[in-house]
Amino acid sequence: MDQPARKTLVFALLAALLSVPARGEGDWETTPASEAALERGLAWLAHPKNQGREGNWTSNDLGLVGMGTLAFLADGHLPGRGEYGRACQLSLDYMLRKARRETGLLNIADPKRDMYNHGLATFVVGQAHGMTKNDEIGGVLDRALKLIAATQCRDGGWDYQARSQHMGHDLSLVVMQAKALRSAVDSGLEVPQEVIDLAIRSVREHYTPHGASRNAPEDEQREHRGQFTYQKGGGGGTVAMAAAGVVCLQEFGQYDDWRIAKNMDVITAAVKQLKAGRHNGQVPFDAYTLYYVGQALYQVGGEPWRECYPILRDYLVATQIEDQGKPEQDGRWHDGARVGGKPGELFGTSVACFILAIPNRYLPILQEGKIERFKASER
Q1: Domain locations in the chain?
Q2: What is the C-alpha separation between 206 and 364, in angstroms, rounded?
Q3: Helix (H) or strand (E) segment spanning residue 228
Q4: DSSP β-bridge partners for residue 208
Q5: Which of 247, 248, 337 shows the shortest CA–CA distance to 284?
Q6: What is the rounded radius of gyration, in angstroms, for the C-alpha atoms of the chain?
Q7: Distance (Å, rounded) from C-alpha 186 to C-alpha 175?
Q8: Who wins on pLDDT, 34 or 8?
Q9: How many CB atoms lie within 10 A of CB 345?
């Protein structure tokens, strides 16, 4: 964003982004079975009968199309390069082609899904730009970022439609836009500090303690269990929201925020209760929840990552659909909750592949090294 008078966040990305990361740290991160499952999942995504000529898997939700692109990027397949370079290029081109030049909006579906699709798609476009430094991608990304800043509500959140209001809608939208902004930082772009400050404040306002008032002093809230919730009033205390809040705080350097540990207790307990079926296509939880849970575990690292990631990984290996007689059917997963049909298979398979590819650390957002924290948002 090119307004030099505006305060910006300066992030010191300590990772060497031009180097090629190692593929996993050992058997506890990747196994021959998980690598084979990832390959079969990507093959399903790239199959012409599934992806189609337009590259959008029959979906007009640019967020879902972006998830397909992310799956390829996460395994190091750049647009036009690598084994799945053509498939990656097709899906990315579809998103870039459908971006609205006059507003920067990345949504061509129902306007009520404006910022849902926009946040997911902008995050992926940011990761693609960080890996390619392509000028065309950069132009779309810049306009998309300006829209996010322009539509932030006064309380730091966002509405489902691309419009600024007094109050944002829910935590899911805050985290989606915040991740898109962080993705831009990974690409070397500047992000307005005031936008991030408001978003992080909004995330914290979605924390609900159990057994104490939300308005109680923080020292009192710390004495109780609690988690991030969908609504500020405490409604929607799901595993997905616990993970989404953690991801947002971690990715913006709020590593010492006491709320992270409270929510990691919720996440790790839920992961340890998972029981996989056999080849039924079901991802852990659902695709949306898995997307955030995997990232929360990785971003926090340490014992939660070492203990819980193998559970997610092996669950995906066990449930992947097998149909070796039909390549267009073999290797997929489905969403299991929110999205049905081919788009649901796109969502489930994309997120599953993304989770299985995390140990490869190809995406800029997954590079090692922490970012400098900034005083304005610390509490």
Answers
A1: 8-377
A2: 28
A3: strand 226-228
A4: 227
A5: 337
A6: 19
A7: 16
A8: 34
A9: 23
What is the CA angle 125-294-107, rounded to 5?
30
At 251 the three-state DSSP class reads helix
Nearest by Cα to 351 from 365, 367, 335, 366:
335
Token readout for 320 is 């992947």
Give the architecture (CATH level 2) of 8-377. Alpha/alpha barrel (1.50)
172 vs 230: CA distance, rounded Å = 7
pLDDT digits (tens, 9 = 90+) for 195-213: 999 999 999 999 999 988 8
Asked if residues 196 and 181 have their Cβ atoms less than 8 Å apart, the reply is: yes
* pLDDT confidence bin for 3, thresholds 50/70/90: very low
Q: In the predicted model, is pLDDT for residue 173 greater than 50? A: yes
pLDDT at 35 over 80: yes
Q: Give residues with Cβ within 8 angstroms of 260, minimum separation 6.
A: 246, 249, 250, 254, 300
Amino acid at 264: M
In this structure, what token pair is assigned to residue 186?
Answer: 């990974």
192 phi, psi to nearest 5 deg: -60, 130
Which residues does 213 contact at the CB level (< 8 Å), separation at least 6?
none
Residue 319's CB is within 10 A of a number of other CB atoms, namely 22
Per-residue pLDDT reduced to its tens digit, 134-168: 999 999 999 999 999 999 999 999 999 999 999 89
Two tokens at 328?
A: 């267009």
Place of tokens 């498939």: 87
